[in-house]
Amino acid sequence: MLNAFAEALSSLHDPRPHFLVGIGPARPDALPPRAEWFDSAHPVPDERSVRAARRALDVAAATAPKDLLVVLLSGGASALMALPGEGIALEDKQQTVRQLLKGGATIDELNAVRKHLSAIKGGRLAAATKGHVVTLAISDVVGDDLSVIGSGPTVPDPSTFADALAVLDRRGGRNIYPSAVVTLLERGRRGEIDETPKPDDPRIARSIAHIIGGRMTAVAGAVEKARSRGYHVHVIERPIVGEAREAARAFAEDAGRAAATLPRPACIVGAGETTVVVKGNGLGGRNQEFALAMISSGLVFGSIGTDGIDGPTDAAGAVVDPTTAERAAALGLDPQTFLSNNDSYHFFSALDDLLRTGPTGTNVGDVQAALVP
Length: 373
Prior knowledge:
Helix content: 25-40%
Number of strands: 12
Number of helices: 14
C-alpha cells in the first residue's frame, strides 16, 4: 500500500511532486522516480524509526508558505516514525511501549502516551511546516479517529499529559515505567512543557485530513471473495474489540446466531482490533490468541492482522477447524495450557496452522472469518 501511495502521488503532473519519502517495515521491490525510502520497525520503534522521523521533520521544516505537504498515512506509523521527546531516550520509549502492549493497552491509550513522549506525533509534524498539509489516511483504528491513527502527526490532539499519566496508572502503575518517562509526563501536566497542538493552534490551521480506507474496506473485500466462492455471508457490523479471548467468546455466540438463519454454506465476517493482557511467558499475538480461544466453537475460523504482522511473531494470525482439538491431543498439546501461558504461536506452529503472509504494506486492523459448511 505504501508503494501504491507513492506511485499514485508520483504520477501527478499538476502539481508534480518535488520528491517523495517513504517509511515502512520492508522496502518495496520498486520505487517511483524521486523517491527516498527508509526501512523502519514495528510494533516497537528502533534507531531506524528515529532516522525516518528526523527525515520527515526535515521535509516538513523545509516547506515554503506556498508549498503543499501531502502525508500518506497508514496504521503502524506510530512505531515506524518515532522521535523521542525532551529528556527521553529511545530505550525509554521502547520499554514503555512493550509494557503497555503487555498490559493490554488499547490503541487509544497507547497512542495518548506515545504522542506525549514524541517530538513528531500529536500534530507536531504539521506544526513544523510553513505550508499547507493534506493527509490521506488508511485507518487501523476502530472509529477512525484521525488523532489516533499513527498517533495523529498532522492533526490536533485532544489528549493531554494528564491523560497519558492516567494510562500508566491504569496499566500497571507509574513505578513500572522508566523514570524519565514518568518525569516528562508529570512536568507536562504541571505546564512546564508545551502540550501537543490543540484545535485552536494556528500552526496546524492549514492542515486537513481525510480517511480513505479502514476496517470495513477489508470486510468488503472478504465479503466479495466469500460470495464469489458460493458462501452466504453475514457481517458482524460492531467492531471486534476488547480482550482477545473474551472477544472470541462473543464472536462465537454471534456466529452461532447468524448461522442458525443463514443458508449453507455460510460465512460470518467481522473486523476490529483486540488486546491481550500478557500473564504468561509464551509467544503470540492477538489474532493467534483469538483463534486459540475459538477451538471449542467447532467452527472453521481464522483471525488475521491485515498488515501481516501479529505481535512479535512472523505470523499474521492462525486458523482452527473441527479437527484442531483432536490433532492437538494427538501431539499431547493442551489448548488451555497454551492459552493460559499466552503461547498461541507455539501451539499453532506445532499444528502447522499459522497464517503467514509476510508484510502486506497496509494496515486496517484485524479481520475474523468463520465458515459453516
